[in-house]
Amino acid sequence: MQRRSLLAAVIGAGMNLPAPFARAQSTPALSAADQALISQVQTYLNGLTAITANFLQVAADGATRTGKAWLQRPGKMRFEYDPPDKQLLVAGYGLLVYNDPQLDQTTNIPLGSTPLGILLAQHVTLSGGVTVTNVDREPGEDSITLIRTGKANQGSLTLVFGTGPLELRQWVVTDAQQRQTRVSLYDIAPGGPFPDSLFTFQGGSPIQSGG
Questions:
Q1: What confidence score (pLDDT) does residue 4 get?
Q2: In the predicted model, what is the mean pLDDT of residues 107-115?
Q3: Measuring CA to CA, which residue among 200, 43, 182 is closest to residue 125?
Q4: Which domain holds residue 46?
Q5: How many domains does the chain have?
Q6: CATH code for position 118
Q7: What is the pLDDT of residue 5?
Q8: What percent of the chain has pLDDT over 90?
Q9: Mean per-residue pLDDT for 197-206?
Q10: Residue 30 and which of 42, 126, 130, 168 are 20 to 30 A apart at CA?
């Protein structure tokens, strides 16, 4: 997979993907049970401070990658990929930074232009600027799909939770061309606060502005 395609697969937005490929998003009628779940998820996410986890990433082309993740709300995330992958994805200070040392290239993207920015917001509000487009329930698993209101061409974010108790286990990023990247978390453990340096990329490569 080309580097640009890999980055688009990871974050699902911010890469100037053509809007005409985006499917029209219609807002479903949400039941009282749906609204209750949305409220529960919102409370859970706003109470989520810092975790560590291992992850399995499955890209749209079926390629799999594994690694270690750190998440600290608001606004901070770090993905380190296991060898032989050397890519690094860091979110912090309003930017999402992707570094590919093999190509000696680094790309900066405003975090707020990506679906992951919804998850890492200072205060998660699943209404107004965010629209819930789908709620799904399976035994032991609930999921909600989100878009930025009026900006379906930026992609969508589906959050998948285990139930009893509610726990974030997976997210699926869908880009404007309906390509999906699935990130599953396991060995999840509370942590933090983590040092700021963990969410700061320091390298000598030229910085390229993305999207």
A1: 42
A2: 81
A3: 43
A4: 3-15+28-191
A5: 1
A6: 2.50.20.10
A7: 40
A8: 30
A9: 69
A10: 168
